[in-house]
Every structure is written in C-alpha cells, then in structure tokens.
Write a structure and sequence with these properties.
Layout lengths: L1 E6 L10 H10 L2 E6 L8 H8 L5 E12 L2 E8 L6 H27 L6 H5 L11 H8 L6 H8 L14 H10 L3 E4 L11 H9 L4 E6 L4 H13 L3 E5 L38
Parallel strand pairs: 1-2, 2-3, 6-7
Antiparallel strand pairs: 3-4, 4-5
Length: about 280
C-alpha cells in the first residue's frame, strides 16, 4: 500500500481543498494518507467525511509549531480527538502568533526601506487557493517578491532574519497532544533549513516524542537511514510523507518520495486509522 502522511490544504498554506486532496490521493494510487496542516485542524472533518465510502484509509493529523533553544521545529500529531479543548486552544494560540509574525515581517521590511503600506495590508484580502500565507501573497501582489523561494532567499535569510514567534516548548506541545489522545512525532528532522543534532533528537525523546518522519523529500538516502536507525535503536515509530502543498511549493509532489506501508513502523497509529467503514 502506498502511503503519504504529510499533506497540506488551504486550511494552512496549501492550494487544495479537502476534496482536491482526496481526488489527487486516489489518482496517485495512495491507500493511506493524512492531512497535516500547520497549526490548523479546519480541514479534518470535511476530509474524514469524504474518506468514508471512498475505499481510502486516513489518519487525522496536524503539524504543530514548537520552539526549542530559539529554533523552530514541527511536531506532527496523529490520531487525536479534534474536539479536545486544550489542543484547540493551543492551535488557536499558535495561529494567532503566526498572524502577528506576518505583520512583524512586513514592519521589518518597511524599516529596511521597502515600499510597504501597512494600512493597505490591514484591508488586504488573501485568497487561500493560492497557498502560502497572507504577508507573502501581499508582497507578491505588490511586486516586491516573486514567490516563496524569493521570500526566503532574498527578502529574509542570514542577512535579514525573519521574525518568528516563540511557540510553546516541545514538552508542552507533546503533553497537549497526548492529552488529546494523539501520538506526537517529529516532522522532517533533517530538513535543509535546520539539520538536527543528536543532542536535539535526545531532547525530543526525553520530552515524549514517539517517532520520526524518516521518509520525506527533505532527506537524502543517508539522512533517511540515520533516522530509521535511530528510531529502531530507541523502539520508536517511523512515518513518512511528501509535505505536499498542492501547487504552492515547487519541487514537492504528492507521493514523493514513494513510500510503502512496509517501510514504516506505525505501531499504535494503526489503531487510529479511519477507513471507509469507520475506525
């Protein structure tokens, strides 16, 4: 069975609706998938309704922002109760921080001399079908940015650090996920923007991480092997996914890298899978 446990919708920064996700998952021959929007579960109920009767298998997911030692990491949570008040409060607070960060990024650019009208931004209507986020699309429409890579390569980087919120600690994030009945795993730990050290991996293990997303477009073969070996040594779960955002992020496609269920170690996640007939 083909698997993709990391897909984004318009609820965060993807271009697809839940219906388009399901359609594309079916077209790609993927049998088990998860929607994991950034700090949002707004697409989950609709996706779940579409799965029932489709023949697909599905895991509820969300990619939660956390801060450790001043750096941003993403914890992928699966199989939780989406009505849990503590989890919903945490996600709402993270989304509010991201909204404030959007505005602060524009203030930084304005202070550096870019012609940005913050009053105009207040009334700017973002189209979620484009993917991305409000500040990025505003900059594109103002002719100040050509796309997501230009945003990170030219507007922000070592020469101009992008302002990021301080999100809750990994311990807080994982405790809330577990309270909601979910399973926390570390998403793309070897991503190119923040290669992870053994010390950081151990810090996440001590605070309750249940596994790693080992198979991902962000990892080469050696990096994948490193994380698979680490999970096996510590008896942890192994997942994978494309980090597909529809058409928003160039170079990311649904089902890439190809992942078979036999490559993974889902453990307790197997009991959380939703099928056409229910759990």
């Amino acid at each position: 069975m083909k698997v993709d446990l990391h897909i984004h919708t318009r609820a965060s920064d993807g271009t697809w609706t839940p219906a388009q996700v399901v359609e594309n998952v079916q077209a790609a021959g993927i049998g088990l998938f998860a929607v994991t929007d950034h700090d949002s579960i707004d697409s989950l109920a609709t996706t779940e309704a579409l799965v029932r009767g489709s023949g697909l298998r599905y895991l509820r997911g969300v990619e939660v922002s956390t801060t450790l030692n001043g750096s941003l990491y993403h914890v992928a949570a699966y199989g939780f109760d989406p009505t849990n008040p503590a989890l919903r409060h945490l996600l709402e607070a993270n989304c509010q921080q991201l909204t404030e960060s959007n505005l602060e990024s524009l203030r930084v650019l304005q202070r550096d001399g870019l012609p940005i009208d913050l009053a105009a931004y207040e009334t700017y209507e973002n189209d979620p079908a484009r993917g991305g986020w409000r500040a990025l699309n505003y900059l594109i429409d103002q002719g100040l940015c050509t796309g997501v890579r230009d945003y990170f390569d030219r507007l922000f980087g070592e020469h101009r650090p992008m302002p990021l919120p301080t999100f809750p600690s990994p311990a807080k994030i994982m405790a809330t996920i577990v309270e909601a009945g979910g399973v926390p795993l570390l998403a793309h730990p070897g991503s190119q923007w923040l290669p992870i050290s053994d010390e950081v991996l151990e810090a996440f293990r001590r605070t309750g991480i249940r596994g790693l997303e080992c198979y991902t477009i962000h990892h080469d073969k050696a990096t994948t092997r490193r994380f698979v070996d680490w999970c096996q040594r510590h008896d942890l779960l192994i997942t994978g996914g494309s980090d597909c955002h529809g058409g928003f992020v160039p170079g990311r496609a649904l089902g890439v890298p190809p992942i078979e269920l036999a490559n993974l170690r889902l453990g307790e996640l197997e009991d959380r899978i939703i099928s056409a007939t229910g759990c």
